[in-house]
Amino acid sequence: SIEQKVNYTFKDIIVILDNLEISFLNLCGFKKLNGAQISKENITYILNSLKSCVDEFEKSRNILHIFNSEYCLDKKKLDNLPIGLFGNFYSHELAFFLINKNDYKNLHNIFNKCNLKIKKIISKSFIEGANIVENNSNLETFIKIKIDKENSKIFFFENSSLKFFQEFNFGTDLIVDRKSTRL
């Protein structure tokens, strides 16, 4: 009915979900440079190596997102990819956002039945954190704790990258009023 109202046929969609069962994996890859210049190929090699490790060891999960968490050249943290710089040792940390393969397949199947192709699946938690970073230019690392009546969530962003998220099945409903518990 939306397509008819706007006279447009949707083909691709971006799905934003709030209740995905997500896991995170933070890995660090490195390259010995021996004084050489860092090239795009060095970084691509590290990314592909880490991605292969995740695919190999997390067979029941799909990679949903990959975040660049940290770049270090000779033990010095950098703000950007150090392509073109010289050094002895380069390390690159990545945060992998993983989803259960069956959940991933089910989402694709549901939308395929509606002739829609999923372009991206994004966690609402990531969007909330990205908005915090966007609205606070000097805030790149923070923890957000969200407590609702029946559940709680913890988000950890480091260097503007979501590194950890966990949801708990309890909230303010656990708070007991001492007055009402007296005999």
User: What portion of residues is helical?
Assistant: 25-40%
| Major sheet details | 4 strands, antiparallel
* Global outline: globular
Major beta sheet, strand line-up: 2-5-3-4
Order of SSEs, N→C? HEEHEEEHEHEEEH
Structure annotation, total helices = 5
Strand content: 35-45%
Describe this structure in words.
Helices cover 28% and strands 40% of the residues. The protein is an alpha+beta fold and 183 residues long.
Which descriptors apply to this entry?
183 residues; 4-stranded antiparallel β-sheet; 5 helices; globular
Describe the SSE topology.
Elements: H1 2-6, E1 12-17, E2 22-32, H2 40-57, E3 61-73, E4 76-78, E5 89-100, H3 101-112, E6 117-123, H4 124-135, E7 142-147, E8 152-158, E9 161-168, H5 178-181
Parallel strand pairs: 1-6
Antiparallel strand pairs: 2-5, 3-4, 3-5, 7-8, 8-9
Q: Would you summarize the structure shown here?
A:
About 30% of the residues lie in helices and about 40% in strands. The protein is of the alpha+beta class.
